[in-house]
Amino acid sequence: MDLEFSKADEDYRQRLRAWLRDNLGEGGSANAVMRQAEKDPGAAKDPLAGARAWARRLHEAGYVGLAWPKEYGGQDASFTEQVICAEEMARVRTPPLINTIGLTIIGPTLVQHGSEEQKRRFLPRILSADDLWCQGFSEPEAGSDLASLRCRAELDGDEFVVNGQKVWTSLAFLSNWMFLLVRTDPDAPKREGISYLLLDMKTPGINVRPLRNAAGGQHFSEVFLDDVRVPRDNLVGELNRGWSIARSSLDHERSGLSGVIALEETLGRLWRMAGGLKRGTDQALADAGARRALAQHWIEIEGLRHLGYRTLSDQIAGKPPGPGASVGKLFASEVRQEMTRTALQLEGPLGPVAKRSPHVVERGRWHAAYFDALAHSIGGGTSEIMRNVIAEKVLGLPRLQDD
């Protein structure tokens, strides 16, 4: 495993830092860029104008779609440049890109499996944030066991007619495109007879209903599809061969060092909160147990970082990524949950106080984060599934047979 960046990589880091200083200002924030865009006359019709403006500025500078081919608007960047870019963006705390699902899941999937027409049609608009995407995989009775999905699509001439329901669909109420799995051969074994479609969310017959989560937010939605017509040209890959493409999409969702960087940011917030929080007459950090918990979180995140570097080294050497993504996804979910538990323990009785209370700590951030962290052990593959992958691919245990 190589832990050193080359001189060319460090030069790239310095150029990126200079761009960030020029575009954000010393100690500045992308929020200023976003607020300016929201003042433009046309922004009144687009509540996401500010977020799109920041995404476009990054794309124009060459810091979005780093790994994508240049012919589709990407940069053909190296693995190390991708890591450096993620690290530096986190260092100055730029806001997350509005089109994360498009950039990290469906975009790479189309690069790998899409037709030439699909790549040229969709990839540039993902990079520019003109199209926002959501993922239509989970269903009421097909979450952890995704292959049991029942959403049907029947061919009618040059169109698929889709009927069914999706649930836990992130940002469906903001998205104008969805990539979804549908069953196109009901008589085939459950991991066969599944196809991968691209759906325009403005198509008649789609009903999106936002779901309020335990933290009070509305990040997810349930989506009902009633005789929704999808052009056959929007089929990714071959008919009835969508399961392998879906697994590829999930690999993209679980891979990379971005999760480590997000955890580092969370730990930094937790450390700052602990430094300013009083427990009786002392700071929370005066408690040895609190310091021990924070140190343990740092150790675990460093372990995840080095796991990411190992995967990165393998990729640079041309080796397959292996099960590292599953190990990282599982461990990162647990670390995130432990950090939010530490935060609530530090806050004590004030932890669950409502946002509008004069006694609330950090506007109730950690209370909401605790509930959000629980979802990380489900989304993108449950912790149980990750343990099965590790058992089979790392420990060599026999595969569990389907019922």
The number of strands is: 10
Quaternary structure of the protein:
single chain
When the domains are counted, the total is 3
- Report the CATH superfamily of the largest domain: Butyryl-CoA Dehydrogenase, subunit A, domain 3
Relevant terms:
Butyryl-Coa Dehydrogenase, subunit A, domain 1, four-stranded antiparallel beta sheet, four-stranded mixed beta sheet, 12 helices, Butyryl-CoA Dehydrogenase, subunit A, domain 3, Butyryl-CoA Dehydrogenase, subunit A, domain 2, alpha+beta, 403 residues
Question: Could you characterize what this model shows?
Answer:
By secondary structure, the chain is an alpha+beta fold. It folds into 3 domains: 7-98, Orthogonal Bundle (Butyryl-Coa Dehydrogenase, subunit A, domain 1); 133-241, Beta Barrel (Butyryl-CoA Dehydrogenase, subunit A, domain 2); 255-393, Up-down Bundle (Butyryl-CoA Dehydrogenase, subunit A, domain 3). 46% of the residues lie in helices and 14% in strands. The protein contains 12 helices and 10 strands. The protein has helices spanning 7-24, 30-38, 49-61, 79-91, 100-113, 116-127, 242-254, 258-276, 288-316, 324-347, 365-375, 383-393; strands at residues 133-136, 152-156, 159-166, 177-183, 194-200, 206-211, 220-231, 235-236, 278-279, 282-283. Strands 1-4-5-8 form a 4-stranded mixed sheet. The protein has a 4-stranded antiparallel sheet with strand order 2-3-7-6, with no helix packed on it. Strand 2 (152-156) and strand 3 (159-166) form a beta hairpin. The relative contact order is 0.08. The model has no long low-confidence stretch (mean pLDDT 84).
